[in-house]
Write a structure and sequence with these properties.
about 425 residues; alpha+beta; four-stranded antiparallel β-sheet
Length: about 425
Amino acid sequence: MLMWLVIVFSSVYSTVIRGEEYGVSVYPYTNQLIELIVNPLKLFSLILIVFYSSEIVWRERSANFNTILDATPAKNWVFFTSKLTALIILPILLITSAIIICILFQLSLNFKNFQLNLYASVYYHYGLQLVIFCVIALFVNTLVKSKYLGMGIFGLIVLLTLNSGILGLEHPLTSLDYLPSPQYSNMDGFNGVSNLFDHLALYWFAFGLLLTILSFKIWNRGLVPSFSVKLKQLALYWTKGQKFATAILFVLFLSAGILVYYNMVSDYETMNDKLEFRENYELKFKKYNSIDRLIPTSKKTMVDIYPNKRMYAIEADYMLKNKSEQPLSELFITERIPLENISIENAQLVAHDSIYGTYLFKYNKPLQPNDSVRFTYKLKKEVKGYEEDNSIVNNGTYLNRFVNFEPILGYTST
């Protein structure tokens, strides 16, 4: 605990008081302080959970006191619940102590807008994931026959989880206990990723409760049985309450998973998918990189904004000029957002690739140097599902034509 307090204190002090790498102090807004404490929180907590989960589960057996304790008339749920509670309290203590340090820093700087509700959200946005890891650790240690084996297996699970992308488990439903890190802004609060977080939180919380029931069913009391015997324990002696709770949690787990999958199925891409897309785009359209680009000399853009629907519509009218020293016979365009309509004056569309969003126009006659043509396009953009797009939110809009919607006049390498 002392080491954790030193880590939090030094992180906050070096940023808020002494300033970051440029020596500029940060105003102690609550969201900025939270970002400082959550960065080391996950790694530090997981290290402690790996060690203390085995220690808590196997404590009596390590002290050779288990036969006396197991002979008492106390119910299994008393021992099980006490150990699970002790393990869950660990990340809660880490978060609470970090929050207290942050508030003390704010008080020392005469900053009174604590935003306690935002501090409380840390338990949900970051603590819940750690609690589920506690349940997984308890399940592993209940399943194995020795303390160090449980410590090693759970440590391996943690390492594989932190590097799930290397194993190809990038999807949130397959990356064990994956929860995105919601970003909070003092202007628009939580946006976009919060819906994905809520649904995944429900998914993994149901998974954690299922593991809790299974852990209780195979809880070690008396001599530690073999793995095969524990599997038999799972199949026998189910009470009606246990069956009902398991069925409800399984339906909840499955429903949350279907909800997440349905909202991600249309736009989910792995890193390999993105790299392959860029590679194929380059192989197919690199030949058009030699075409000189037209330069906009006039831009007229009409934008209709629908904040409640998180949608906007664009109608644009440009004048493009050939500022090169040679006539141009073709124009290559790459869209950022699928276009509803596009036209080039005195040119015909000869090729369109809807997968890569490219258009190839051929002029009716070569466009001479310093000549201009009219370029018009229409598009409509609506943020759907779990898409992260802060260009239009409930209480504000920031549309950048060079990032959000304007088609690229030519081949692009990015």
